[in-house]
Design a protein that fits this description.
Blueprint: H1 7-21, H2 35-40, E1 44-53, H3 66-74, H4 80-84, H5 97-108, E2 113-124, E3 127-136, E4 140-149, E5 152-161, E6 170-177, E7 182-190, E8 199-207, E9 210-219, E10 228-245, E11 248-271, E12 274-291, E13 305-318, E14 321-325, E15 333-337, E16 341-349, E17 359-373, E18 376-385
């Protein structure tokens, strides 16, 4: 007489059936805490995922045609390492919603990104994983131009790439011919030189009446909590400046200019709602004018100028930014400062420093904004220099 299967055998059969049919579906996952709840709980940032979207979203109507798909294939998306290098937080840091929002603003400030959003995607045992979602824009800009005004033609051609090979760097070639000169120029800008917030810019323009050379290396106050800044700016140019009388050119003179500046800045970062920044630097500028032997002068030469002066500057910024859509750009998130921003700078040029005169050099600007009622805001600005 056959024996009945034991309890152990029955359990093995039951487990085999469950494995063959698949595990039962999991119940709905618990909702993620809000950003405010994450910060209040002392959450720590875990993994940070970077998701770079195409120029066109082919999943929506109107952007699913062959032209948009071809553009996505031709465009080189921003490299995730470029996005990661601009984050104001990293794995292991405490979650701070203010830094997340400011990072979104920094990313959206790049001309090669259409939008940037940072969202929590997982939370477990006090650790929150974040996903940085960005979307590229089309950055290759070739073009030609022609205009005619006052009997004179103006021609131009340009090819510009603002996100070279997905690195965030910009490279521009431009040819232009107008009534004053014909010129060809090339410029290169790396806003995150050596994977940092240091900005490198170089430009060279060769014209039939001179040339322009520019070098800029600076590390700005890129975030509200940035404590140090500094940089150098070097500009040299030589050109012919036309002289007009009642709209008619009556002569030309040679103009050679030099402008050099170095500065450094310090700040204690964000204190409450305010950021205060102090900067100090040295500026040298010289302008020389001469007669062009091949052109009529048409009047007296401007006087030469040479100024060398130290200066001190102060900036005040209110942390009062708002995210808006359709204010100045269609269907695009905009970061609007609805608060106070003021700056002032004063220097003194003395002949003991190499200046050809004693002069006070000063500038100041202020802007502010306010919400009058939903949908209506008032902005104002004022600046002066001399």
């Amino acid at each position: 007489m056959p024996t009945r299967p034991g309890i152990a055998w029955r359990l093995l059969v039951l487990l085999a059936l469950l494995a063959a049919r698949g595990a039962p579906a999991a119940g709905p996952s618990a909702p993620l805490p809000s950003p405010q709840e994450l910060e209040a709980s002392g959450a720590i940032i875990g993994k940070v995922h970077i998701v770079v979207g195409d120029v066109f979203d082919t999943d929506i109507d109107g952007e699913d045609g062959w032209l948009y798909r071809t553009a996505n294939k031709l465009h080189i998306n921003t490299r995730p390492s470029v996005i990661r290098g601009q984050l104001l937080f990293k794995s292991g840091d405490p979650y701070q919603h203010r830094l997340v929002e400011e990072t979104e603003r920094l990313l959206r400030d790049n001309g090669y990104l259409y939008d940037a959003v940072i969202v929590p995607v997982a939370f477990d045992d006090g650790v929150v994983d974040l996903e940085v979602r960005t979307r590229d824009v089309w950055t290759l800009n070739p073009g030609v131009s022609f205009s005619r005004k006052g009997g004179e033609n103006t021609w131009g051609a340009q090819i510009e790439e603002d996100n070279l090979l997905g690195t965030g760097r910009a490279l521009d070639f431009e040819w232009r011919s107008d009534v004053d000169r014909e010129s060809f120029g090339v410029s290169y800008v790396d806003p995150h030189f050596r994977h940092s917030f240091t900005r490198l810019g170089v430009a060279y323009i060769d014209a039939d009446d001179g040339s322009t050379k520019l070098l800029q290396v600076n590390r700005p106050f890129y975030a509200l909590d940035t404590r140090r800044a500094g940089g150098v700016y070097l500009l040299e140019y030589e050109r012919n400046d036309p002289r007009y009388v009642l709209g008619d050119e009556v002569g030309e003179f040679q103009h050679r200019g030099e402008y050099y500046e170095a500065y450094a800045g310090i700040s204690r970062g964000l204190a409450g709602r305010w950021v205060r920044r102090w900067t100090g630097g040295v500026t040298y500028e010289r302008n020389r004018f001469a007669v062009d032997p091949n052109e009529p002068l048409g009047g007296p030469l401007p006087p030469d100028r040479e100024l060398a002066y130290p200066w001190l500057g102060f900036d005040l910024v209110e942390d009062s930014f708002q995210e808006r859509v359709n204010q100045d750009q269609i269907r695009r998130t905009e970061d609007v400062l609805v608060g106070l921003r003021a700056s002032a700078r004063v220097g003194y040029a003395d002949d003991a420093l190499g200046s050809d005169r004693d002069a006070l050099v000063a500038s100041a600007s202020v802007q502010d904004g306010a919400d009058l009622r939903p949908g209506i805001s008032l902005f104002g600005s004022l600046s002066a220099s001399g």
